[in-house]
Amino acid sequence: MAETILKHAGEFETDFIMYTSTFCPYCTAAKRLFKQKNLSFTEFNFDHEPELRSLIVQETGHRTVPVIIDNRGNQPMFIGGFDETNRYLNK
Predict the structure, then answer these.
(1) How far apart are CA 79 and CA 87, in angstroms?
(2) Which of 7, 31, 25 is nearest to 85 (CA)?
(3) What's the pLDDT score for residue 3?
(4) Which one of 14, 23, 67, 87 is separated from 78 by 20 to 30 angstroms, measured CA to CA?
């Protein structure tokens, strides 16, 4: 994953970083999943911060929301969207 996203994610002390949009059912499901697992997250809504969208797409290749990054441990890691995160957390 590109250095810009890693730097951005590293600025926060939450378990996950999530890029979302308003009225996104998968974003709502991801938030619910994090709450059920007692995991913290920082949310950035592309509708409120549109300049982030092109950067995130460019650096991850992920064009849909949510875009989720595991911010635990030493190195932030791009997970994907809701389906990938659900599988990742329920291994």
Answers:
(1) 10
(2) 31
(3) 57
(4) 23
| C-alpha span between 84 and 68 (Å, rounded) | 9
Distance of CA 24 to the CA centre of its chain: 13
pLDDT in tens, 1-35: 455 665 666 677 899 999 999 999 999 999 999 99
Give the pair of three-digit tokens for residue 55.
């950067």
- Exposed (0-12), middle (13-18) or buried (19+): which is 7, by Cβ within 10 Å? exposed
Which domains does the chain possess?
Answer: 3-89 (3.40.30.10)
- What is the total residue count of the chain? 91
